[in-house]
Design goal:
Layout lengths: L1 H30 L3 H6 E10 L3 H12 L8 E4 L17 E4 L1 H9 L3 H7 L2 E3 L1 E6 L5 E5 L9 E5 H14 L4 E4 L4 E5 L10 E5 L4 E9 L6 H6 L3 E17 L7 E7 L2 E7 L4 E9 H9 L2 H13 L6 H16 L14 E4 L5 E10 L3 E2 L2 E3 L5 E2 L7 H21 L7 H29 L4 H16 L1 H11 L2
Parallel strand pairs: 1-2, 1-11, 2-8, 5-13, 11-19
Antiparallel strand pairs: 3-7, 4-7, 5-6, 9-10, 10-11, 12-15, 12-16, 12-17, 13-14, 14-15, 17-20, 18-19
Helix pairs in contact: 3-6, 3-11, 5-6, 10-13, 11-12
Length: about 475
Amino acid sequence: MLVNNMKFLLNRQFRCCIQTTSVRLLSTAVGGYSPQFKDNFKGNYDVIIAGGGMVGCSLACAMAKNSLLSNLRVLLLEASPESYYQPKPEYSNRVVALNQNTKSLMTSLNVWKHVENVRLQPVRYMQVWDASSDVMISFSSADMMDDDVAYIVENDLMLHAINTELLAVNSNINIVYNAKIQSYQLPKEAYPSTQSIVKMDNGDTYTCQLLIGADGANSAVRKAMGVQYLSWSYDQMGVVATLDLAEECTNTTAWQRWLPTGPIALLPLDSKRSSLVWCTWQDNAKQLLKLPEDQFVDALNDALWKQYPRSSSVETCTSWLSAGLKQAGMADGAARQLPPSVRGVAPASRAAFPLAFGHSTRYIAPGVALIGDAAHRVHPLAGQGVNLGFGDVKDLTELLAEAVYSGLDVAHPNWMQKYESVRQRHNVPTQVMIEVLHRLYTVDFLPVVLARSLGLQIANALQPIKKLIMAQAAT
């Protein structure tokens, strides 16, 4: 261990000498090392993280907490002003469903305790059913060795918890708020010439050996990389709101109904309230936002309870299969819970955001890596978007720590290529699965409705399939 630590310190000292020379060369290239550039040059860092959302901040926190990475000079650039979280009685209308792997990551960073000290709601049961056939699938904590299926946490609370722990760490993580980035000058040559220049709107300039793009779906870092980005709009919006339930209940169940226009989901917040995510076509979403509260509540209850037109052929086939499953002693889907009725909507909680798919064919370039929505974007129907981003954080931190322990440079292509490979092997199948589900359930073509209904019945009856689905969702 002592030998490896000596190796790391000597390697770091050598890199500092190289980086100092590189800064002078870069300064000459930018402005002939003019007094103006010297005045605006704010520092050279090992790592710059562009984007201070939940994913970017968690990466900075993970680096600060990792003993092998805590000596790196890290700069976090956040476009928003520094904010101060104050818990309120009312819930935010933007929430995330966090899986077990995310909970484990946040627990290891001492972040989870800050969430628990305020509020979160565990999901112990989940029921998904089809409005076109009433076939359903359910997931229970009992199927996960009594672990919770998920945890519903408000976005701003999650970010507050991460920032609280990040700021409490006595580390060399520097944070710049209101950071408006004008441009990136990325390395044109392959490793080891990996020095990036980040120029701000106010003229300030930073350099780094490793640049991390955590700047969202419209990532400027990704655009500067020039990589191919596969994307399309769903022509849908996700309508969100905080709902008051008609009756007080335990409320640890997440409900999702597949409508012909897209899924509608109720996520539990507490015994009296749930969070709404209603995916629908853009025109309908805009109309829903304009409706008076009572009409919106009526439309919402209709979406949860309305009997949609059924095909007699589909009904007959699903009844036959249900009888066969029951005879074989398997779950036939007949036993189900009924969703709660909605009484009202919290004032000013209705909003909507556009839905789209996106995937960068490359997560890395010389001296650059992407994480979170900058690398991938999915439909919210499975609640996996931010969990994929936190998975990026976990793997990147571990692989970078291994590289540093081995004496490799922070931008060495070996570990970066492994990061890209590991994450794409996980993210791409998840994205494909979510995309298939979306396409499958927004079609009312009779053979498709029949196939998905029978498939859902079989999946619900076979425990190995359900456990496989839950295992994939938990990672």
